[in-house]
Amino acid sequence: MSSDQKPAGYPAPSHVSCRSNRSMDSPVTFKGPELPSSSDQKPAGSPAPSHVSCRSNRSMDSPVTFKGPDSASSSDQKPAGYPAPSHVSCRSNRSMDSPVTFKGPDSASRVPLDRSHSFPGSGSDPLSSIFSLLKTDVVEFVDKELIRIKKTLDPSECLLDQREDEDEDEEDESMRICRKAFQDIMLQFLRRRQQDHLADILLNRTLPTECQNKLKSLLKKRFERVVEGDARGKNSSLDQIYTDLFHTEGGTGDVISEHEVRQIESASRKQNKHETKIGCENLFKPDFGRQEPIRSVMTKGIAGIGKTVFTQKLALDWAKGKVNQDMQFMFPIAFRELNLLKDKKYSLMELLKLLFPGTIEKIISGLEEFRVLFIFDSLDEFRLSLDFQAHEIITDVTQSASVDMLMTNLIRGNLIPSAQIWITSRPATANQIPPHYIDRMTEVRGFNDEQKDQYFRNRFRDEEQASRVLSHIKTSRSIYIMCHIPIFCWITAKVLENTREGRELPKTLTEMYIYFLEVHFKLKNLKHNGQSAAAPTWSPESSSMIMSLGKLAFEHLQKDNLIFYQSDLMECGIDIKEASVSSGVLTEIFKEEPLSFQGTVFCFIHLSVQEFLAALYVHLMFFNSNVNLLAGAKTVSLWRNRFHSTSVFYESAVEMALKNPKGHLDLFLRFLLGLSIPDNQNILQGLVPQGGTLQTQEIVAYIKTKIDEGLSQERSINLFHCLNELKDHSTLEEIQKFIKSGSLDADLSTTQWSALLFILLTSGADLAEFHLDKYHNSEDTLLRLLPVVKVSTEAKMSCCNLSEKSCEVLGPVLSSHCYSLTKLDLSNNNLQDSGVKLLCAGLESPHCTLEVLRVSGCLITKKGCSSLASALRSNPDHLLELDIRYNHLGDSGVRLLTARLEDPTCALNTLKADCSASKYLKPGLRKYAVHIGLDPDTANKKLMLSNYNETVSVGKEKQTCPDSPVRFDYWKQVLSTDGLTGRSYWEVEWKGQVYIAVAYKTIKRRGDGKDCCLGQNDKSWSLSCSDKEYSFLHANNKTSISKAPSDRVGVYLDWPAGILSFYRVSHNKLDHLHTLRTTFTEPLYPAFRVGLDPPNSSVTLC
């Protein structure tokens, strides 16, 4: 019967059933204009209903279709005597068991179904009160869902507003289930009304959302919690432990084959001030001015730098609705998973079903209609070949092919051309994908210093403890540099939090890894073997395990393998269950899903752990079994008979590492040498036999001889790291004394120069500004210290005797994307036009970031101007200032550069250029020579001026001269006649004890105070010259200069630049003594002071 035909006495409903007032006004409008007439069109005389019903007679006959076709009979078919309900309910008994799912946790419907419970105002029927609350929930829920469905069906409102999207993302799983159930009900109702077209539209428009929600749920389950470091360790929230990495634009597809520890050290020295950090949510956002969309991105980073967690964080944030919600589907896939499918063929549809089960099956055939992101992590772990020359083209997601063929077609854009691709890789393997398939290259640099601090403060919640940990790791530069890698931060934290109080903390990398190994085997013994904390760490069982792990590490290090399969472990005698127990040493990478049925993959938690265990294995094999694994199979017996020498063993290791062209054994060598230290052997007592100090001293001496052979800078630096592991700091301490004394010169040995480079690159000092004249003004010094220039942002090398050869090495520095030099001062060097041309080869590169170039006084002509103008046309975006004064440019040369200044597309905004004269083509500083005359009115009366006022000495008697307010009345001093404000150079010959100075005219003249004495106040600067030494004086401060005096001194003043330099002149060559950089506020007057002892002291202007 219809709702209008009720049995006699049937109670009137208490409220409108399952509909809001809005839907009651036009219940069928959600269907569209072609819907049949609504309940507003009643037969004449039809009685007014007690409430509006959205049910047809057909639906009234079987109301239980809310639960599905197998539901029990409808509410109209009741047993005799069944009590009349207080209102119509849209719930089965099953749903009534958990009524609160209609609302959130604060719902008022959380009332237990207890008939003995008393409800305010409920009378004698508590069930009525419960249903009254449920009815409110149901009406609210249905009303909201009807509005949502209407928006879905209405073409003008097919997308929910952003606020509703956010609300949907925050819903719990139970509410999603309710919404899905209601949607199924609405599909049934639409089809009963013969609205199949609308039902299909509703299904098609909501199916992607349903699949997306399933995919997001799966990704949250996979990535919401991670295990830091080891597979059996503490399960942590990724959101809580995650620390942002420094991720920046840059890099090319070039092969970087050097050992990654070198890359770590290089990255730690990079100046990040001028680089823009890229959030993963902006990976595919085109740069300003770029018209083409970005389809594919390659992100490079060394092993353990955090690439995998970086991709997982993006997937998790997307699944939680935090970022990239314009992306409809996101598929993070690890290449190591695909290795297990190498002998099988899949279509892309089948592959995604396998990797993301139960999520996207219903829409996968139409995946190209959606915005999709594929994330392929760790290309370096892919053991299949990517052949981009293959001619097989796959465009159909249902076509089967090998996994590597699917990958190449996805990357090339044949499969799902609209999909976006993000690939991560170690630098050495990034070139496996041709660069024309990559639209953007980025780089993960790991933690900068600020992020290191943040990590340890997050890890150690106690502020005092965190400060102690940070203070300690900063005392060891090698450890602090390695903390650039997130996983090494975890290793360090693991060691430090398990180091008992009173025990010396590790200061070298070898000590850190020994402690790390010890910590995990102690924990293993306590947890799995039931041993006490006092029990020996190294039992026969643990020794056997370490030998097996070491064998695996060493053999696969030689093959450059980082991941291993069960067969690899079995070949090395490793029991898989036992390996899983040693969780912190060997990590089980694969989880139970999605491919756990295919097999399991293992790897060490970081390459450095593998290298340490490999070194330990080689060490144990030599000392325990008399086998030198580094000597090769053919020489083992010969070794045992003739060369059983510890020192020769270590020397062979050094030679082997040096012969490796890529430096891949550098860290292995550090560990192997570090294991020779008695202190480290004491920690491993019971595992490693004790050695002697004699061998350590011998290998230290051997390493120093290798450094002195003139190895490459990278090899020398690594050998100094080896000396650090051996705890020998003698050479470094020696060179630090030289630096503090200011006595560095060209006579340093090769070892000392290498030590200087090592100190500069590893000291942690700010290298933003590099001043070549602090070390030695020569081209050889520049070549030796070029790695320091590469990591600087500003290089000042004026007056350093540089030539075309220097430009040859500086050009590649300017053109490399790896360096960020922004200011370069090469003024007053003999560069000439040929040198400028070499510089311009770097300047015109799109990777060049130079903003300021100073080449004044460099013997440049119109030809050099032409090279500079051409470079500015090729790369007009970066150079802002060009100083090319004091050259012989001519009018035409100046016009070439002025045209670039006036070009609106060129960034150049400051041009300092003049026609100058041919005299500026004279090499060196003498092109700035000026004539200096002494002012007799300022000379002390004891001074004698002669040789046309160009020579001054001390007389026996006071000179007869008029009184003058500008005369020095106590100090034996004299000023020149004219002040200087440009570039000037003059030379003087001297003997005895003299002071060669410059001073402001406002220096005081009366009295014997320091405010009148040259070099003793802030108005004068003086070079003290005697037969014993030079020293520089200013404001009563003295700087000793350890160079043998000569009888001629040159003085160079660049007043606008604030530069004052003194040179020793010998055999017509300038040898730098001291340079001052400041800001001058008044014209400077050359000035001299003559000592009384010896009595023949004098100064003569040349």
Automatic annotation (TrEMBL):
Domain NACHT span(s) in chain numbering: 295-427
GO molecular function of the protein, one example?
A: ATP binding
**Which keywords does the record carry?**
ATP-binding, Cytoplasm, Leucine-rich repeat, Nucleotide-binding, Repeat
- Please provide one cellular component term from the Gene Ontology annotations of this protein: cytoplasm
Q: Where in the cell is the protein located?
A: Cytoplasm
Show the segment(s) annotated as Disordered.
1-125
Q: Which Pfam families match?
A: FISNA, LRR_6, NACHT, NLRC4_HD2, PRY, SPRY, WHD_NOD2
Residue ranges annotated as compositionally biased, kind Polar residues, are 17-26, 53-62, 89-98
Q: Where is the B30.2/SPRY domain?
A: 912-1102
| InterPro entries given in the database record | B30.2/SPRY, B30.2/SPRY_sf, Butyrophylin_SPRY, ConA-like_dom_sf, Leu-rich_rpt, LRR_dom_sf, NACHT-assoc, NACHT_NTPase
Main location class: cytoplasm
Report the protein name in the record. NLR family CARD domain-containing protein 3-like
Q: Which organism is it from?
A: Takifugu rubripes
